[in-house]
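Exercise 7. Predict the structure of Membrane protein implicated in regulation of membrane protease activity from Alkalicoccobacillus murimartini.
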Amino acid sequence: MDAQTFLLYYKVHIGTWMLLILLFGVLFLLYKWKVSFANRLLRTILWLLYSLSIVSGVAILYVYQFPAQYIIKGMISLILIYSMEVILRKTKRKQRGTSIYWFICITALSIVLLLGFNIGMSN
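Solution. The predicted structure, encoded as tokens:
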């Protein structure tokens, strides 16, 4: 893979994660405020962004030749996506018990950001 293609995957990966976090917050607030305007469309866009982030992340892993740090980051990212989905579904159905998933979500997001920006890692 050439440098331009890698840079494209890298930018798509970062952009989709930024949009994922933003759209997650918007959907959470819409569900919390019981606003049903365009929720199905936003959920579909969220699933598309999940797919794009996973595909671009695997492409980046391929270029880096699957180092352990990024494999762990990918697994924690999947846990983050899972916790985001559980939070949204429980909020939509007005169920209780999201606090543990909020803890998992915030912890996983913190770890993913730290690993993604190589904070505390020696190269």
